[in-house]
Amino acid sequence: DRQKVLLVAFGITIAGLNMVMFMWTKPLLNYFIPFWVDPALARIDHMLFLGQDPWRLFDWLNTMPMAIFYHRGWFAFMVVTLLIVLSQPASPRKSALMLTYFLLWTVVGPVIHILLPAAGPVFFERLGYGHQFAGIPLPEEMQKMTEFLWVFYSGERFGPGAGISAMPSLHIATTAWTVMAIWIYARRWTVVMAPVGLLIFLLSISLGWHYAIDGIVGGVAGLGCY
Hints:
The protein is mostly helical. The chain is about 70% helix and about 0% strand. The protein has helices spanning about 1-30, 40-50, 55-60, 65-85, 90-115, 140-155, 170-185, 190-205, 210-225. Helix 4 crosses helix 7 and helix 7 runs antiparallel to helix 8. The model has no long low-confidence stretch (mean pLDDT about 90).
């Protein structure tokens, strides 16, 4: 079906361009808006987990394969889900899902970042907020990634994809979107995708990219947009 193939290809192209735009915008925001919300988010996490820092509960997940899965597995699931949604016939549900996807990347992520700028636990100490997250065991690949991001940020250099942002977690917002889409169009696979989504959420905390509240806000934002 040539028409369907062209439509899917067009949709993926637009989604790709949208992500490129986000990756250019994200580092620019870092230079205009200082990070000041990290201590408050750390306190919220501490209260949510009854006086415990949540990364301490899940740091056993911090292996190299899990760190790779957090980034590349998440991306693969998102792209496959985009293909599934785009290949469906036109309907209000399909429109709502696609609008939600673009709203998350284009509006929700940047706007919440502007209102609540936070760098995340892995940068907490470097921002001068203390040693609360200094003990997070980071796999080698992630250590290199954090160094890369910090070099660009601290040197006020611009690099596409070199932006830092914890709140909201678009990793979790788009994971919630993926779970919703699978529930709608491939419901039997929800038993697979839901645990995967939970794992991605836990990894966002254990690896120190996000505070738990970042993921909660991201997930609620995804559901709210839909």
